[in-house]
Amino acid sequence: MKKLILASILSFVTLLSCSIKDNTNSLELTQNLDYESLSYNEIGGKSYESFKIAPKIPKSKEERKAVKVTYLMTDDEAHQSPWSGKMLLFMDDLPQKNVHNIVFRDGGKLDDSSIHYLTAGKDPLKVESPSSFLNDNIKEVQSNNPRVFSRILEWAFDNFPAKKRYLQIYTHGGGVFGIGMDANQTDLTGKKLPNEELVTMITPQKFAEGLKQSLKGRKLDMIYFRACLMGNVEALYELRGIVDYALASEDVSYSKENSNLTMTKLFDDLASKETEPKELSYQMAIQAHGKTGAKDGYTTFAAIDINKMDELKSAINVLSLSLISGLKTEKDAILSAYDAVPTIQGEDVAEKSSENMRDLWRFTAELDKKVQSKSIKDAVQQVRNAQKKAMIHEKDSFGSSANGLSIFMPFRENLKPDQGMYKFLNNGYLNRRFAKDSAWTKFLQQIPSK
Q1: Structure confidence at residue 19 (pLDDT)
Q2: In sequence order, which residues have a C-beta less than 8 Å from that of residue 254 and are 6 or more positions away?
Q3: Residue 243: which of 221, 228, 226 has the closest Cα?
Q4: How many CB atoms sit inside 10 A of residue 213's CB?
Q5: Domain boundary among 277, 308, 339
């Protein structure tokens, strides 16, 4: 049995110190070496690799304007489980005429991993729509297992034909570290999984692979990340070729009526009206009210065109190479720009899980202000132009500190060899596709610790 090691050595357990108190959706992050070592196609682990589902819910041959899957990965001991139950009751009573609306919910109990085909009920106190466990005698699953995630989406997209395909996912998010948590991780007999199969979060590459396998060559028109920190370059880059648009926050997010209920209804309404995905993303991003702060659920929010992420990666690659070269002549200026980028919430209140992802736009602004090299300045403008193309809409309440996209950018004191971020940079981070496809990794590896 391999040992679980920390990919991120955190001073506080985020789930306890922040999620319960502030209704945020992030989590302490742990790396499982067994899980990281699985190939792209082997995403289920020993217990779930051959897992299939067979819900006792009638399938449909009727093509509708959209099929929308809401994946409530909310098996926690804090606010998400009760909130997801409230969301399911709320969605159960919404009109469903033009949209195939499928909801999977894994709450905080040991027997509540169920799937629902919404049919517009009338009783606000109970779910009246057809509901089922995923399979006979399986009442609990590891919902943050990418194979489970993939099978549920596959079943929905295969059996409910539609012109557009959408996904809303409500869970804890970790950006570059991954997405999704599950407090009760069991095998298919209901027993706790062995340590080597426990997962704190689905890594970005396995989340994308799960999506890819479920879509079978099709594309997801838009994904709404109702989760913290997913407005992140590394996480979104993995979605190229399988998703057109994404809605996400680069900061922690909050479970509020607007973010959990109002925006869910707006999503359904716009899909029902056959709103084009780009316009739908734009309207949803406006409703997030990112500029007004946490009272509506978001302090930052953006709609992102995933098809533009390749151009952004290429621009960051050019900048990275320019910075590596520039360290020979303008080291102090580059390090000054690097150090000047604050955490998105500010150093006094930022969660430890989010302080290692900092705003890309702010970094390029600091570089443009501090360096003299023409090649670096030209590369900075190339990145900023590419980011502008990728952003459909962005609002935040932090001024210049947040502009829609974060990138893995640990504080230099966290890059000492005995620190968790140093270990992650030279281990788990290397599995991220962005790390493989760009020179950003080499730039970070050449940044001296502080």
Answers
A1: 38
A2: 22, 23, 24, 25, 294, 297, 298
A3: 221
A4: 19
A5: 308
From the list 310, 212, 209, 294, the residue with the least C-alpha distance to 253 is 294
User: Which of the pair, 13 or 271, is modelled with greater confidence?
Assistant: 271
Average pLDDT for the chain: 89
Greater pLDDT, 277 or 27? 277
Q: What angle do CA 144, 124, 120 make, to 5 degrees?
A: 75
Which amino acid would we find at residue 342? P
Identify the pLDDT of residue 121. Answer: 86
Segments forming the whole domain that contains residue 397: 310-446
Picking from 253, 280, 308, the residue at the C-terminal end of a domain is 308
Q: Are residues 166 and 122 in the same domain?
A: yes
pLDDT (tens digit per residue) in 274-298: 999 999 999 999 999 988 888 999 9
Going by pLDDT thresholds of 50, 70 and 90, the confidence category of residue 36 is low
d(CA 137, CA 427): 39
The answer on 330 and 292 residing in a single domain is no
**Mean pLDDT, range 233-253, rounded to an integer:** 96
Q: Which residues pair with 138 in a beta bridge?
A: 135
Question: How many domains does the structure of the chain reveal?
Answer: 2
pLDDT at 38 over 70: no
Question: Are 252 and 349 within one domain?
Answer: no
| Whether residues 219 and 246 fall in one domain | yes
In the chain, the largest separation of any two C-alpha atoms, in whole Å, equals 69
Please indicate, yes or no, if residue 286 is contained in any of the structural domains. Answer: yes
Residue 109, pLDDT above cutoff 50 = yes
